[in-house]
Structure formats: C-alpha cells, structure tokens
Amino acid sequence: MNLQVQSGPSGELLEGLLTGRLDAALVDGPLELSGLDGVPFCNERLVLISEADHPRIHSALDVEGRSVFTFRQGCSYRMRLEAWFAHYHAAMGRAMEIESYPGMLACVIAGSGVALMSESMLASLPGRESVAVHPLAEPFASATTWLMWRKGMLGANLNAWLEQQQAVYPATPGQARATA
Questions:
Q1: Full set of structural domains in the chain with CATH
Q2: pTM, two decimal places
C-alpha cells in the first residue's frame, strides 16, 4: 500500500478532490457534494483554549474582541469558530492565521488570544497543561471527520487502508463504513 499524505484546510482538500489532484481527503463533515463519496472516519470533541488563568468561558461574549488563532480561510474549524461568535452576537477579534497547532498553543499560552482545536489534538501537544480548556455547547462541540473520495474512484490502496482501519477501529453500531 502506498499513500501520500498532505494537510490543509478542508476547503482546499475538497477542491483537490474535485479537480482530481487528490485521491482522498480527511475533512470535517458530513458532506453531500456532487461527485464525492465518503464515510465517517472519527468523531472529535472541540474545545476552546485560553491562557491558564482565564476565567471560565461560557459563551463567545466572554472572549468578545480577543484575538483568535486559527488556520487560513477554508478551514472548517475556523468556520465553526466564526459561527460560534455569530451565534452569540459577539464580535470576534482579529483572526491570526497560524499554520500549526503547536504555534496556536504557544500563542495562547502567551496570553495573546484563544484557539479552537479538538481535545485529541490538544492532548498530543507538549505544553497542553499550560492552558485552560473550555468545553463548547452543541452544535459547536462535536465534529465528525469524514474520509472522502471521488465517486467511483475508490482505488486498491485506499480500499486496503480503509479495511485496515476497520480492522483496528471497528465501526460502532450506527456508524457503518463502506468499502468497494
């Protein structure tokens, strides 16, 4: 099996799929785009992080006007964060585009603003104990990552990888995964 991996905002990855530049992509879903197929891959819990001594954040009003560390336009988590601020009619501060989670974490530790990331990503980062973690309310707290590919283009490598993932991480009831 030979797979090449690249990271990027969900919007860019979907564009790569639709233009044929990419064979598959892991993106925030669920998606219903003409010409694409996919399966749920994993569920993520999203949290907002702030400097360690920040009071509990209950809504976007608690951080109105603060800088936000995020990926560039097209990132689905950035869109979720923008929707979170809009839901509370709160003004989001300046979006500071950072291209890595460790970079976001460092900026938050320094007290320069807040960031949104999955609990699992935060748990993997050195320095995670130096921030305060604030759970979000639904619908902003949950994200499902989907594995997407062009309709009719589930090749042997991708199918083998999917089967391997299913063997290691069997689908739970109600979360069926399809293979070709």
A1: 10-43+142-168 (3.40.190.10), 45-135 (3.40.190.10)
A2: 0.81
